[in-house]
Amino acid sequence: MKAVLILFDSLNRHFLPNYGCDWTKMPNFRRLAQRTVTFDTFYGGSMPCMPARRELHTGRYNFLHRSWSPMEPYDESVCKNLRAKGVYSHITTDHFHYWEDGGSGYLTKFDSFEMNRGQQGDPWIPCVEKPWWPETYSNRTASANWRHDWANRAWLDSEEKMPQNHTFQNGLDFLDKNAHTDNWFLQIESFDPHEPFYSQQGFKDLYPHDYHGKQMDWPDYGHNELDEAATEHLRCEYAALMSMCDANLGRVLDKMDEYDLWKDTLFIVSTDHGFMLGEKEWMGKNVQPFYNELIHLPFFLHDPLAPEQDGTRRDQLAQTIDVPVTLLDFFGAEPLHHAQGVSLLPAVRENKIVRDTALFGIFGGHVNVTDGRYVYMRAAAENGNGPLYEYTLMPCHMNAPFSKEELASVQLVPGFSFTDGCPLMKIEAKGGNNSYWYGSRLYDLQTDPEQENSLNDLAERRRMAELLRREMKKSEAPAEQFQRLGLPMDGPISDVALIDGEKTYDKPKAGTLTFTPRGEKALAIYLSRLVRGKAEAFVQRLIDCYPEYTELTENEIFDQMRQVEDTRFGEMTIKNVRNFL
C-alpha cells in the first residue's frame, strides 16, 4: 500500500470549480473530482502555516497552548509511527518557512526530504544592492522579505524555474522510481498559491482584464484599501497562480494514471488555510475573525479500497487533525497516542459520521467551534487579551528566538498529559489577533452561508459555548484560556457571558502626556499587544520624545511604532491598530 498527500498553501475553496466557482480555469481539479470523494464540510484547526503542519504530524490542536512554533521534543509524529510499520516517508517542498527558526524539526521527521528554494522572501539569491521593483500599492517595501522576493523573481523568469515546478517534478521523479515498490508515503507540498501571487505570463493570460494601476500581487493584511480595479486585478493574479497549481496537479494525476496507482494508493489533496481577497472588505489572514473563506477548506480523498465511492461527496464534518490519523489507519500502523483526530476512512467507505464538532483558531485570537451548521467565535473578554501564556520547550517565533524580554517572565511548570512527563516553559504572551474588538459571534451557515449577520440567539449561543467549553477541556486548554475568554470552566454560563457589552479599555498611563481620544485608544490597543517590558519601554520612549507635548494623536503613536517595530510587520501592526479606531 502507498499514499500521496498533495498539500497546497492558501488554496481557496471558493475559487475552485469543485465548490461552485464558474470563472477560474481548473480542468485538473475537475478531473480530481472524478477520482476522489469531495468533502464539503472540512475545516482547518490551528492557524496559520506551521501550526497547521504541526497538526499534520501530531493529530492534535496546538493553538490553545502555543503560537507558531517548531516541533516540540515531546511531539509524536505520524512519520515515526509509519517508520515503525515499515512505511518509508518522503517530502518534497518549497515551503521556505521550514528553514526558519520556527519551522525546525518538521522535515527531519521524514525519512528523506527535498527543499526547493526561491519562494517569496526566501533569502536565496544574494542581493547586496537593492533589486528593482515597479511602483506598488504594497506597504512591505522596506522589509527584507520584499527585497529577497524581488531578487528571487529576477531568476525565476520561466515556468521551468519556478519553485513549485521543481517541487512537483521531484514528486514525479519519486513516483517514477518507486511506483512499482510498496510501503511508502509521499508528501508533495507547494507554498503556492500563497502570496505573493507570482506566476508566468501564460497563466496570467487565462484571466484577461483591463488594469493600468500599480503593481499588486502581495496584499497587505487588514481592511481592503485597494480600489475595485486593483482588487479585481489581485484576484486575477491569485487565480493565475491557482491555475499553475492546477497544471501541476494534472501532472501528478497523469502519473497516477500511467502507473495505475489508483488501485493501491491513498490519494489526498488539501490545504492549510484559505485567504481573503476583498470578501467582507478584508485582505489576508490572521488579523480578522476566521470566516469560512479562511478556515472552511477544500479536501479530496481517494481510498483504493473503496474506488466505487470516487466521484461522490460527503457532508460529514472533518478537519486537518484527522489527516495523520487517517494515514496511520490506512497502513494499519500504531495510532498516535495523544491524537485528537479521527480516521476519515469510515466516512468514505460507509458514509459514517466521524465527529460532531471541530475547534479552530489562532493563538491569542478567537477560539472557535462549529458543529457543521453553526459557527461560534468566542472573543477575549477584555482589551488586554489576557491572561495568555505560551507553553513550550522550543521558544522560537517564526523567524527568531523569543526575545530576552519575553524570556524574563519564564516559569518552569508541570506539563500536560500529551507532554508525557516533560515540564514546560510557561512564558507570558502578548499580541496576536485581539478578538476583543470584534466581539463574540454566532453564524448559522444554513441560513447565512456568507456569514453576514451574527445572531444574538441566547439559547443557541449557550449551546455552542457549552460545546466550545467541552472541546477546550478535552484539549487540556490552560485555565487562563477560559479566563481570557470570560468563560467559566464549570457550571452554568450566564446570559451576561454570552452577549458582548460596550467595548472599553484601560487608559494608558504615560506620565504627564495627554492624548486625543483616538491617540489614547491607539496607544491602549498597541500596548495590549506587548509583553510588560516592551510596553513600559514604549511608554518611556513617548515620554522621552514628547516631553512637553499635549494631545498626542494616533499619527504620533504610529510614527514611534515604526521606529521600534520590525519593518516586516510594522506597517501590518499599524494597520491592524488603525482597523480598531
Provide structural commentary.
- The structure is a single chain.
- The chain is built from 17 helices and 19 strands.
- The chain is α/β, with parallel strands linked by helices and 581 residues long.
- It folds into 3 domains: 2-352, Alkaline Phosphatase, subunit A (3-Layer(aba) Sandwich); 361-485, no CATH class; 517-580.
- An 8-stranded mixed sheet has the order 5-4-6-1-8-11-2-12, sandwiched between helices.
- It is globular and about 75 Å long.
Secondary-structure map:
Blueprint (H helix, E strand, L loop, with lengths): L1 E7 L18 H9 L1 E7 L2 E2 L1 H10 L19 H7 L3 E6 L18 E4 L28 H12 L7 H16 L5 E6 L11 H4 L17 E2 L4 H31 L6 E7 L4 E2 L4 E3 L7 H4 E7 L10 E7 L2 H10 L13 H6 L7 E5 L4 E4 L3 E5 L10 E4 L11 H4 L3 E3 L10 E5 L12 E4 L13 H17 L4 H7 L31 H11 L4 H14 L8 H11 L2 H14 L1
Parallel strand pairs: 1-6, 1-8, 2-12, 3-13, 4-5, 4-6
Antiparallel strand pairs: 2-11, 7-10, 8-11, 9-10, 13-14, 14-15, 15-19, 16-18, 17-18
